[in-house]
Amino acid sequence: MGQAAKVLQLFKTLHRTRQRVFKNDTRALEARIKINEEFKSNKSETSPKKIEELIKIGSDVELLLRTSVIQGIHTDYNTLKLVPRKELLIENVPYCDAPTQKQ
């Protein structure tokens, strides 16, 4: 896949992740502006090494958003209701003192 295609795919993926992570939060959905600004500011970059580095940073940001961010809704003065997405909820796996190695 060419670099231009990778950049476009990352751009689209970041926006999809932003929409999923910040669903129903209009203020947080404005992260769209920051994503667009970052891509626009690096639009004239020609160094393949620098472009790969920027793609790596963007991919890391997308992974962080997708796996670590949950929404919180203020329900009262000192109360926050957490709204985790289904993909963040994991099965409760019992602890094992002697883990086995995968072959």
Automatic annotation (TrEMBL):
Gene encoding the protein? LYRM7
> Where mainly located?
mitochondrion
Q: Which family does it belong to?
A: Belongs to the complex I LYR family.
Q: Where in the cell is it found?
A: Mitochondrion matrix
Q: Name one Pfam family in it.
A: Complex1_LYR
The protein here is known as Complex III assembly factor LYRM7
Q: What is a single cellular component term in the Gene Ontology annotation?
A: mitochondrial matrix
Matching InterPro entries: Complex1_LYR_dom, Complex1_LYR_LYRM7, MZM1/LYRM7
Extract the GO molecular function terms from the UniProt entry: protein folding chaperone
Species per Swiss-Prot/TrEMBL record: Callorhinus ursinus
Q: Where is the Complex 1 LYR protein domain?
A: 6-59
Q: Which GO terms describe its biological process?
A: mitochondrial respiratory chain complex III assembly
What this protein is reported to do is described as: Assembly factor required for Rieske Fe-S protein UQCRFS1 incorporation into the cytochrome b-c1 (CIII) complex. Functions as a chaperone, binding to this subunit within the mitochondrial matrix and stabilizing it prior to its translocation and insertion into the late CIII dimeric intermediate within the mitochondrial inner membrane.
Quaternary data? Interacts with UQCRFS1.
Instruction: Supply the alphabetized keyword list.
Output: Chaperone, Mitochondrion
